[in-house]
Amino acid sequence: MSFAGARAAVAPDNGLAMALWSLQIALNTLWSPVFFGLKNIKLGLVVLIGLWLSVACTMLALWQVDWFSGLLFFPYLVWVSIAGALNASVWRLNLEENS
Questions:
Q1: Residues near 80 by Cβ (< 8 Å), separated by ≥ 6?
Q2: How far is it, in rounded angstroms, from Cα 73 to Cα 87?
Q3: Domain count of the fold of the chain
Q4: Which positions ≥6 away from 36 have C-beta within 8 Å?
Q5: Which structural domain, as residue segments, surrounds residue 72?
Q6: Which of 30, 35, 40, 86 is deepest in the core (most CB within 10 A)?
Q7: pLDDT for 39-68, tens place per residue?
Q8: Is residue 41 in a domain?
Q9: What is the DSSP letter of 31?
Q10: Rounded to whole angstroms, how far apart are CA atoms 72 and 75?
Q11: Contact 29, 85 (CB under 8 A)
Q12: Percent helix, percent strand, percent coil in the chain, to nearest 5
């Protein structure tokens, strides 16, 4: 994430890519305190859905600025997908507790 952001930061016409990069890093930072700190599994899932969307959009925007930076975001999108599946499973398995 950092290397992709650093490459895009010095590229021309990077405004949208850097704005989306900032959004995804903020959502990434928010998820752990919501899920683990507040133990709010449902809100964590909402944050993770927003994170997934922002990572996908960031990857596309980075690709247009610097194709290698966009490519570097693909494993991150896979990781967020796995984290989302795990978060959704934890929420589903604890429906009675979360009601």
A1: 48, 51, 52, 55
A2: 21
A3: 1
A4: none
A5: 2-93
A6: 35
A7: 999 999 999 999 999 999 999 999 999 999
A8: yes
A9: H
A10: 7
A11: no
A12: 85, 0, 15
